[in-house]
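Q: What changes when alpha-L-arabinofuranose is included in the input?
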Amino acid sequence: MFKLFVNPNHRMGHINPELQGNFSEHLGRCIYEGLYVGEDSDIPNVNGMRTDVVEALKEMGLPVLRWPGGCFADEYHWKDGIGPKEGRKKMINTHWGGVVEDNSFGTHEFMELCRQLGCKTYVNGNVGSGTVQEMSEWVEYMTFDGVSPMADMRAKNGHEKPWEVDYFGVGNENWGCGGNMTPEYYGNLYRRYQTYVRGYSGAHPIFKIACGANAADYNWTDVVMGTCFKGTPENFHGFMDGLSLHYYTVPGTWEHKGSATDFTEEEWYTTLKKCYFMDELVSRHAAIMDKYDKDKKIGLIVDEWGTWYDVEPGTNPGFLYQQNTVRDALVAGITLNILNKHCDRVKMANIAQLINVLQAVILTDGAKMVKTPTYHVFKMYQKHQDAELLESFVESEQIGIEEGNKVPNLTESVSLGKDGRIHITLTNLSAKADYQVETQIADSQVKAVEAEIVGGEIHQHNTFEAPETVTVRSFDGAKAEGGKVSFTIPAASVLHLTVTV
Ligand code: AHR
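A: The predicted holo structure follows.
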């Protein structure tokens, strides 16, 4: 029996809805086919956006979408993607499969997509191969309300009123595909570029994000924070509102990452161990940020995370298309629990990527669409959006096959939702074992408990032929008595309990 303690008297921080954000790059079939099919397509659409996909994402509660990349962002020239479509420049997508990008999805289309989704906008600018002027004009084009060359051009292109840019990234992976820079060099460039990411009077405020570290590159965080430092640790004014972090769960090596669906039990644990590393990463980057910014004014923005496997056999290696199993559901549940628990510092996170790429929530094949196990976990975790994190602790033991490659059998996070109820999300990392859990809710009498679950045999996944193999199912095994809720959590599952006290 494992005990899970919840203290409703102690609120630990606010969980931004944006912790459940997503990312859409001009990569493979994410934008084209996945999201955008064009007005003339036979696939039902509104202004070119797939209706089935938009509906599914609204149901999942997508809070924010990042675009246009990724590595693509530092080669993207936004002016190529505006104006009449027939006149838009074509380019080679050098990073992703060398295919022709016809720029038919650009700024207006992205804003229209976010309008349909009802989500916040996160636009990533080009530092690697773009100029300060180009970035500055993009921000003017999107946000300036008044008479100016860019605002006039926007009006001429059919959108008189400015849009709201909620988040703006100043470059992407500038330590790698975004220019192979040193942190010293990038930190100084960041100071310069961000100066011209103007907050125009009366415009919606823009949250500026500096390019952060690749996984465990703690020096990058230290140097960029130090370079962009203003004030004192007690009264910190950075030039940025957020600093990013990218970390992917790759079960094998970058050369042989491993299959998405065909893996051993040992690989199951390796994957979950690598996923669980996010906790250490966030803690250590946050500790460095604390040195400069004691009051946690700068958000850590985990704007790329998720599993990265070998592509599905027979698909374009540059398209990063992979299946998604119960293992991915666990990666999603574990990661979201970790991010919730760090909500004092983590202000946004964006799983990579939305559709047909890496750990996608949706897969499409022409007109067909399927929701992945990861989708269902996000849908269940929606109740944590805008909630207050509650103090909690779960007893656990180390499990796994190889010494040195073990993980805790259980992870949890708990919040007080906007609905006034307590939401507990618990993951069982064991491939085979069920565990009895007794939840104790301090100073409370439980009036009612409801539960739902995503899980199954570790390799199970959804296909276009069998789309409901892994989905959210109701779970009737939770029993309430006094201040306690008892249940047995099945192997390889993510459980959500809604407790009324
Ligand atoms: O998500 C795929 C790629 O991974 C992104 O383009 C890049 O930022 C990262 O390396």
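Observations recorded in class: The chain is about 25% helix and 30% strand.
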